[in-house]
């Protein structure tokens, strides 16, 4: 509003001078003042519109006090060729790779990582099955993890300092949507977990990186599947002024896998809390609910 307040006295001054000149029959001078008056209004109205637009955009599209995450990433999914009918399913499609000759061998390394990390994910799923009194291969079978939605994210956090009080995070507090996440990090501290999501105030603890080890995060889909026997891991990333790199590998079941309260996680006293849902429906819904519709920015630019 500062600009409109600045505009009015300025316009009034030019208009008064214009009228005075017209009264005194000095029309050329009146024209100069009128011209200045129009230019001045255009200038101020232009600035005022910009500031109003900025206010509208920031108040409608950013939650109060949240400036946003500054993490950036390169995402690699399960590679499905465009002419394969499977590519029409959500989360499927051809990956975007650097042009031939750029980073020789990099694509092969990433594909090998993707492939082998899935085997680690399946091994962890066997431990989870045992912990839930299920058959050891409950998750590690073709109908569940045979054709998984698995995504590799190569993440970079630039050398900023996070400031939770100002809503500036490498990655704000969240739990991952899916089944499990395998996380490999460099040795720059940054990842924090909150063991009790409902505690007030929440207590955040750093996770010390261990060379050669994966951190395993349990996702919201596992929480739902296990009728909340397992809680998903609430976590966030704070920057400490150093560049930080991590690799997150998200393991989600097949598109059509039915996520339905596990047989060992319900009793008469504790019936299923959630209805059954297909894996890809659940994930699509979660992404839709939490990611801004970026087309609103295009509309504002137009
Ligand atoms: C994520 C995430 C943590 C990290 O990508 O969901 O929580 O250490 N990453 O980069
Ligand atoms: Ni995460």
Automatic annotation (TrEMBL):
Domain of life of the source: Eukaryota
UniProt GO MF annotations: dioxygenase activity; metal ion binding
One Pfam family in the UniProt entry: 2OG-FeII_Oxy
InterPro entries: IPNS-like_FE2OG_OXY (IPR044861), IPNS-like_sf (IPR027443), Oxoglu/Fe-dep_dioxygenase_dom (IPR005123)
Alphabetically ordered keywords of this record: Iron, Membrane, Metal-binding, Oxidoreductase, Transmembrane, Transmembrane helix
Transmembrane segments: 21-45
Residue stretches making up the Fe2OG dioxygenase domain: 148-253
Family: Belongs to the iron/ascorbate-dependent oxidoreductase family.
Protein name: Fe2OG dioxygenase domain-containing protein
Organism: Gossypium stocksii
């Amino acid at each position: 509003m500062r600009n409109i307040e600045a505009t009015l006295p300025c316009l009034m001054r030019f208009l008064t001078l214009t009228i005075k000149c017209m009264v005194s029959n000095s029309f050329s001078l009146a024209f100069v003042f009128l011209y200045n008056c129009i230019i001045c209004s255009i200038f101020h109205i232009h600035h005022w519109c910009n500031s109003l637009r900025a206010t509208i955009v920031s108040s409608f599209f950013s939650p109060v006090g949240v400036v946003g995450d500054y993490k950036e990433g390169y995402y690699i999914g399960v590679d499905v060729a465009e002419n394969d009918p499977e590519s029409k399913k959500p989360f499927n499609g051809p990956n975007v790779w650097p042009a031939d000759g750029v980073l020789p061998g990099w694509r092969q390394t990433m594909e090998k990582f993707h492939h082998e990390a899935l085997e680690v994910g399946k091994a962890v799923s066997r431990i989870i099955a045992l912990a839930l009194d299920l058959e050891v291969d409950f998750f590690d079978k073709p109908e569940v993890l045979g054709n998984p939605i698995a995504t590799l994210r190569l993440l970079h956090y630039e050398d900023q300092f996070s400031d939770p009080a100002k809503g500036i995070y490498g990655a704000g507090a969240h739990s991952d949507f899916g089944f499990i996440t395998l996380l490999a990090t460099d040795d720059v501290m940054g990842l924090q977990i909150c063991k009790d999501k409902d505690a007030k105030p929440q207590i955040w603890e750093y996770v010390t990186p261990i060379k050669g080890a994966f951190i395993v995060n349990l996702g919201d889909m596992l929480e739902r599947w296990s009728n909340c026997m397992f809680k998903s891991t609430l976590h966030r990333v704070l920057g400490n002024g150093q560049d930080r790199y991590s690799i997150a590998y998200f393991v989600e079941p097949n598109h059509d896998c039915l996520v339905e309260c596990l047989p060992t996680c319900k009793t008469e006293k504790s019936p299923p809390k959630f209805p059954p849902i297909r894996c890809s429906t659940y994930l699509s819904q979660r992404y839709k609910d939490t990611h801004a519709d970026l087309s609103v920015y295009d509309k504002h630019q137009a």
